[in-house]
Structures are given as structure tokens and as C-alpha cells.
Write a structure and sequence with these properties.
The protein is of the alpha/beta class. It has three domains: 24-359 and 369-394, no CATH class; 416-516, 2-Layer Sandwich (Transcription Regulator spoIIAA), CATH 3.30.750; 582-757, Beta-carbonic Anhydrase, Chain A, CATH 3.40.1050.10. The protein contains 33 helices and 13 strands. A six-stranded mixed beta sheet has the order 9-8-10-11-12-13. Strands 3, 4, 5, 6 and 7 form a five-stranded mixed beta sheet that branches. Strand 5, helix 19 (434-442) and strand 6 (449-459) form a beta-alpha-beta unit. Helix 1 crosses helix 15 (343-356). The chain is elongated, with a radius of gyration of 36 Å. It starts with 12 loop residues before the first helix and ends with a helix. The model is unreliable at 1-9, 493-502, 504-515 and 768-775 (pLDDT under 50).
Length: 775
């Protein structure tokens, strides 16, 4: 269930009272989840049990009032259990409280300095690895308590001692702990009405009731006489200030990262006010300062409690505040009840919580993104060393891999035939790539023909000089080198330009700025480095220097480019289309080489059923002059059932120029253009489309082209098949005009108003049906 908008302080009291109808029940649900978790985390940390309850109270009330994430719930977190346990072993509980106070002050400094978002730059692989490492450590230690024993001092010790512990089971305690784990595992599979009660509360309550009624001698939670006597003040350390400082920084950083990650995740679960991350850190720091000062555990934002809060219907921060109040009331009035809880039951709860920190879904996603190594190394370092060192090792590995990906290119010399070598270079070519580049270039024999495929978007000075020098030496030794620049690094243009290195570098940078399109969108004349002839007008003859042999070579290069580079990109899509097609639209347009439907629609294989002819004309139905267009319409609308049919004209159309000038002699072209007579008649009569186009500065030929689009739509409606599909809502007709000079697309929505710009609105995200999402 998603929460509604977070109320602003200026919202009337009546609205706040309405919100309480949702916040109060949600706060009770979160309270019932928080109490057993807080007790279990305190026991697992080796801290006084009441320290967990203190942290839960302050996390609810203080962070609820001061924090910046309205629906996030804070309290003691399992992610800090291992760190706190290590600090208590090293310094004792009193000094650990002082560390919590100092860490809270440091968090306030983070928030005041507006550094909250910096923590979000930490790789998710490190964060997930840290949580998984903590989860493994908790499971390994608390399994010993479930089995009736006591946890060791490290993960390795706990893991190695586990077989011995299993061999010497302590019956009653073991049954209680395993029963809690079993109940928590099956709880999500029970009916929804049953699951309305929090599983941890039922598990701990049932285990406690069984232990009391059976008179079990399983170890219980030990408490002092009252909650007030459990409060403790911080203590100064007796030396070891450097280790103390490391502890402060560790608690502050880990608590901040966990809080901010939880706040960002929580933001995605509701539609209310977004989190103010800096304010959230100030609230967390204030709560930690107070918690440490009176003997509480460190506090963070907790995703489990926050998710429970939102799913229970919370509307405002009042829910989190009230949950802290309920924990306080429970601690004051039902303090003695806590002593009835078996330690094995709390340990079973923590085993379940720790196991949930190991999310296998993260493994699959990180593997797809190439970050699984960082995750595994972080997990191993956390469980073998400690949490801080594990996180630092994970961050260092992340930085090293990022540097490698950014600065290291893929270079491989391949022999094509006896005298030709190919050297594809992918990535960013920098000084770090020179050793690899030099090795591969050294494999190329002197005097051979070499094609260097530079698929790069960055080429630094050192790599440029090395490659440039090798090319000069290879050419001087009788070989040939052709630089095929697929990326935007610009090496080829500088080599052809000559001049000193500084001018070459300037030309290289200019070339990089002038190649915004990938090769599959770029004209042959650009990426094949052809000398571009003077542009002909629509009916001028071709320039005499366009020889057939040269043009054939250009076309074959296009074939090879697809086979070499584009085929593997589109092959997965083509494989799904091998058995048939279901295009989204039929596209009727002119055969003009400047009009490329897939470019204009940002589409690919399987999207458009395209029909091209001279002037994008649509003959009347039952026309005997030409049946190709009619048969295509019958096939697309009748068989393929396309839901959209687009007629697209364009500026500078040679066919429309011929219609305008009536300069075509008898022959096939004259016969084909005969239906356009009605278009010309409309233009001569001052059609509204022509008047609007003239007012916008379009030429008479372009005015004809626009009227011709509308005339095509009218003709389409005279086809019975099209008319029936339009009438039943199965087909939409769309008129479009492509202004070649500006690159603009104009849409014909209302013929009386003429063509209007398609606009530059952001791409609209599409929601697909569940059965189609798998594809």
C-alpha cells in the first residue's frame, strides 16, 4: 500500500486528524515488530538488553521529529551488530557509549555540511556486500546460541566450532530457537489475515509462552531491577585514542550509509514528500548523541521497519514518533516480561534477520553489471577481518575496477589474410593502454596492410603520439595503414590533415565534436570519408564523378560494416522475429534517399511495415494503373492488423516539383503521378493547408507535398478495409511531413489548422501487459 502525500505544517487540523486514522494503527504494527528486534540486536551485540529499547524509543521519537525522511523508521540495526560487538570487546560498554555520542556529533556535522549525497556514491556492490557479510557473521554467531551454546569471538571460530556445537545439542533451547526460525520462514506463506500480525512478535511470544508453561530451564534474558537502573553514562577510554577515533568514524560512516540507503529505498515506496537527506543525518546524529549519552545502542534508519510502516498505511511522520512512544510505554510498564524471553528464541530471530541480509537477487543483478567480484571480496573481507576493513577493501577494489574500465581499452591484432591485418581498438585509449597497444602493434609484420578500427571516444596525448609514431614508421617501411574511425577520437582526420602536433590535436578535438551520430545513423559520405559533391536539386542529373565502380565499393562497405559490427547488436532482436512479424505501424512514404523511416521513428527491426514510392502517392481503390500499394494496404491492415498507418511527405520532393511544373513527358512516371492531379487542384483552389504553409514560409512545392499527405489520408478512407478498421477503432491514420532542412517532423492533426510540430516532449514511458513483459 502506498502512502499519500505527506501533510505540510500548514495543513488544517482536520486533515491531521484524518491522517491519525492511518498513522496510529501503523505505529502499533511497527511497535510490535520493533520490540523483539531491538531486544535481539542488543543481545547479539553483547550490550545491555535495555540499550536496544532505548535506541528504539529515541529512533522513533527524536528522529521522527527531526529527521528528513517522513516515513522512515529508525532504531537499532542488525547491520551495526558486529561493529558494536567488536567495540564492546575492545573498550567495554561505557566507552562504546561515548563512541556512539561522538559518532552522532559527526553525523550532525555531515548533515550541516550537506555531505549526505556523497555517501550515495558508494557502490551498491560494496553496500550489499557489507550487509551480506554482516548477515553471515550474525548467522554464524547466533546459531551457537540457538543450539544452546555461546558464540565465539570471530566468524572463523564460530564456523569451525559449529560441528562440535551441533554434536552437543541442548534440547530445550535448541527446540525453541529452531521453532522460531521455522515459524518465521513459513509466516510469509500463511493467509493474508494471519500475516496481519507481525511474524517476529508471534514467534517470540509463542517461544516465551512455551518456555514459561513447560518450566523450561533454557537461559533467559537477564535484566537489572528497573529500566532506570539500566541507564548508563559514557566513559572515557584509558588510552588507545587512535582505535577510539577509528571506532567513531566507523559507526558514523556505516550508520550514515545504511540510513541514506534506507531513505532512498523508502522514497520509492510512497508518493509523499521526498526525503531531505541532510536533515535526516542531522536527526540521526542527534538521536545517536542522546542514545550514547544515556546508554543506548547506535541508531540508523531501518528498511525492515520502514517497509512495515508504509505497508501498514502510514501517512505522516507521526507513525514513527508514536511507535517510539509505544516502546517507551512497554519498557516502563512491562519491563519484567522481558526476563521471560529465552535467549535461544531471540537468537533464532536474529538468524532469520541475518539470513535475509544475504539477498540472492543482488547476486544476479551484480553479475549482470560486472560487479560480482566486488561483492564477493567485500563479503569475504567483512567476515574474515572486520566490517570497516571489509568496506575499505571493497571501495578500493571498486575504484581500481572503475579506473580499469575507464582508462583501459581492448586491443587485439588479427590477421585477415596473408598481407592484411586488422587492429580493433575498443574503449578509451590512454597512457595506461600503451603497453598493451605496443605489444599488439609489435605483432604486425613490416610491409603489411593494416586497418586500425578506432572504436574509441577518448584518445589522450600519450596514446595519440605512440599510435601516430607507429603509423609513420610502418608507412615508411613500405606498409599501408588505414584508420577506420568508428568512435569520436578523431585520429584519422588528424593523420590526413598534416601540420604540427598542436594543430592536429585541435583538428582531432573538432572532429570529435562533429561526429555525434553512431555509424549506423551516419551517411556513407561521412564515415567512408568520401568527397561530398555539390548537392543537386531534385531533378538535376547526378554529378559526373559518381562512377558506378566507386559507388559499388561504397555499398559493399556498408554491407561489411553491418556484418562486422551491427549484426551482433541486432541478432537477439531478429531471433525473436524469425517466425513472423507484428509491426506497430504501416509507413507509406516517398522513395527519396533523404527520408529514412527508422531514423525518423527511432525504431528497429519488426516495428514498421514500410511502403515507398515516388511522391508517397496512394492510388484510388480498384485502380488498374498500379496495384502494389493497394495490395500492401490489404496485407498490412487485413492480415497483419497494424494499429497505425502513417503517410509521410517531405520537403523538396522531386515528385511534387514535377506535379507543380507539369514537366513530365508521357511514360511510366507520368502515369504514376496522374492521381496527384487532385492534389494540384486543391492547391490551386487555395486549400487551407497551403495557406497555413505559405504563412509559415514554405515553398509552393512544399505546400503541394503537405496537401498530398492529406489527400493520401482521404484516399485511404475510401478503401473499405481501412474505413472499417478506422470506424471500429482498430486503426489510426496519421499524416506527417518531414522538413529536411531543419530536421523537424510536423503532424497533421486538423486539416483546417495545417501541420503542427510534433514537439520536443520527453519520451513517454510505456506500460506493457504482464504477458508481454518477458519479451
Amino acid at each position: 500500500m502506498k502512502a499519500s502525500t505527506q501533510p505540510h505544517p500548514s495543513i488544517p487540523l482536520q486533515q491531521r486528524l484524518r491522517d491519525l486514522r492511518y498513522d496510529v494503527p501503523a505505529s502499533l504494527v511497527v511497535f510490535l515488530v520493533a520490540v523483539p528486534l531491538s531486544l535481539g540486536i542488543a543481545v547479539a551485540s553483547g550490550a545491555p538488553v535495555v540499550a536496544g529499547l532505548i535506541a528504539a524509543v529515541l529512533g522513533g521519537i527524536v528522529v521522527g521529529f527531526l529527521g528528513g525522511a517522513p516515513l522512515q523508521v529508525s532504531g537499532p540495526a542488525a547491520g551495526l551488530t558486529v561493529i558494536v560487538a567488536e567495540l564492546i570487546d575492545t573498550f567495554g560498554w561505557g566507552v562504546t557509549c561515548l563512541i556512539t555520542v561522538a559518532a552522532g556529533l559527526l553525523q550532525i556535522l555531515f548533515g550541516v555540511s550537506r555531505l549526505a549525497r556523497v555517501a550515495l556514491a558508494i557502490s551498491p556492490a560494496v553496500v550489499h556486500g557489507m550487509l551480506a557479510g554482516v548477515g553471515l557473521t550474525i548467522v554464524a554467531s547466533q546459531l551457537h546460541v540457538v543450539l544452546g551454546g555461546s558464540a565465539g569471538s570471530s566468524f572463523v571460530d564460530n564456523l569451525s566450532d559449529l560441528p562440535t556445537q551441533i554434536a552437543g545439542l541442548h534440547g530445550e533451547a535448541t527446540l525453541l530457537g529452531l521453532g522460531v526460525i521455522a515459524l518465521l520462514i513459513i509466516w510469509p506463506r500463511l493467509p493474508r489475515r494471519v500475516r496481519a500480525i507481525p511474524g517476529p512478535l508471534i514467534a517470540i511470544g509463542a517461544a516465551t509462552a512455551i518456555a514459561v508453561f513447560t518450566g523450561s530451564d533454557a537461559p533467559r534474558v537477564e535484566l537489572p531491577g528497573s529500566i532506570l537502573s539500566s541507564l548508563s553514562l559514557p566513559v572515557l577510554p584509558d588510552g588507545r585514542w587512535s582505535a577510539f577515533a577509528v571506532g567513531v568514524i566507523t559507526i558514523a560512516l556505516v550508520a550514515s550509509v545504511e540510513t541514506l540507503a534506507s531513505a532512498v529505498a523508502t522514497d520509492g515506496m510512497h508518493t509523499g514528500r521526498r526525503a531531505n537527506l541532510d536533515r535526516e543525518l542531522i536527526g540521526q546524529g542527534t538521536a545517536n548523541t542522546i542514545s550514547g549519552a544515556i546508554g543506548g545502542l547506535p541508531i540508523t534508519g531501518v528498511i525492515v521497519r520502514s517497509t512495515t510502516n508504509i505497508n501498514a498505511g502510514a501517512r505522516t511522520r507521526t507513525s514513527a514518533i508514536l511507535h517510539g512512544v509505544w516502546v517507551l510505554v512497554f519498557s516502563a510498564l512491562l519491563f519484567s516480561v522481558i526476563e521471560l524471553v529465552p535467549l535461544a528464541a531471540l537468537a533464532g530471530l536474529l538468524v532469520h534477520v541475518g539470513a535475509k541480509l544475504i539477498n540472492l537477487g543482488h547476486l544476479r543483478r551484480l553479475r549482470r553489471h560486472g560487479e560480482l567480484l566486488v561483492y564477493l571480496v567485500t563479503v569475504a573481507a567483512v567476515v574474515v577481518l572486520n566490517l570497516l576493513e571489509g568496506v575499505l577493501i571493497g571501495l578500493t577494489l571498486t575504484a581500481a575496477i572503475t579506473l580499469y574500465r575507464v582508462m583501459i581499452s581492448s586491443v587485439r591484432a588479427e590477421q585477415v589474410d596473408a598481407s592484411t591485418w586488422r587492429l580493433p581498438v575498443h574503449g578509451r585509449l590512454s597512457f595506461l593502454s600503451i603497453p598493451r597497444l605496443a605489444h599488439e602493434l609489435g605483432r604486425v609484420p613490416a610491409g603489411s596492410d593494416v586497418v586500425i578500427e578506432l572504436v574509441t571516444d577518448y584518445l589522450d596525448h600519450a596514446a595519440y603520439e605512440h599510435l601516430h609514431g607507429w603509423i609513420d614508421r610502418h608507412r615508411a617501411a613500405g606498409g599501408s595503414v588505414h584508420v577506420d574511425e568508428i568512435g569520436s577520437a578523431g585520429l584519422d582526420s588528424t593523420l590526413r590533415g598534416g601540420g604540427d602536433l598542436r594543430s592536429q590535436l585541435r583538428r582531432r578535438e573538432a572532429s570529435a565534436r562533429s561526429t555525434p551520430l553512431p555509424r549506423w545513423f551516419t551517411p556513407w559520405s561521412f564515415w567512408q570519408r568520401l568527397e561530398r559533391p555539390a548537392e543537386p536539386t531534385a531533378l538535376d542529373p547526378l554529378p559526373p564523378d559518381r562512377h558506378a565502380d566507386e559507388s559499388l565499393a561504397v555499398v559493399l562497405n556498408g554491407f561489411r560494416e553491418y556484418q562486422l559490427r551491427s549484426k551482433e547488436l541486432v541478432r537477439p532482436h531478429l531471433a525473436g522475429l524469425a517466425m513472423g512479424q507484428r509491426p506497430r505501424a504501416m509507413w507509406i512514404t516517398c522513395g527519396d534517399s533523404r527520408v529514412v523511416p527508422n531514423v525518423l521513428t527511432s525504431s528497429g527491426p519488426g516495428d514498421l511495415f514500410t511502403v515507398r514510392n515516388i511522391g508517397n502517392l496512394i492510388p484510388p481503390p480498384h485502380s488498374e494503373a498500379d496495384t502494389s500499394v493497394a495490395s500492401a494496404i490489404e496485407f498490412a491492415v487485413g492480415r497483419l492488423e497494424v494499429p497505425v498507418l502513417v503517410v509521410c511527405g517531405h520537403s523538396g520532393c522531386g515528385a511534387m516539383q514535377a506535379v507543380h511544373e507539369q514537366a513530365i513527358d508521357d511514360g511510366p512516371l507520368h502515369s504514376w503521378l496522374h492521381p496527384a492531379a487532385s492534389t494540384r487542384a486543391r492547391w490551386q483552389a487555395g486549400d487551407p493547408i497551403a495557406r497555413r504553409a505559405a504563412a509559415d514560409g514554405y515553398s509552393e512545392v512544399d505546400q503541394l507535398a503537405m496537401i498530398n499527405v492529406d489527400q493520401g489520408l482521404r484516399t485511404l478512407r475510401s478503401y473499405d478495409l481501412v474505413a472499417d478498421a478506422v470506424a471500429t477503432g482498430r486503426l489510426h491514420l496519421v499524416g506527417l511531413f518531414f522538413d529536411i532542412g531543419s530536421g523537424d517532423l510536423l503532424l497533421l492533426d486538423d486539416p483546417a489548422a495545417g501541420f503542427e510540430s510534433v514537439g520536443s516532449h520527453p519520451t513517454q514511458p510505456m506500460r506493457v501487459a504482464p504477458d508481454a513483459s518477458a519479451g
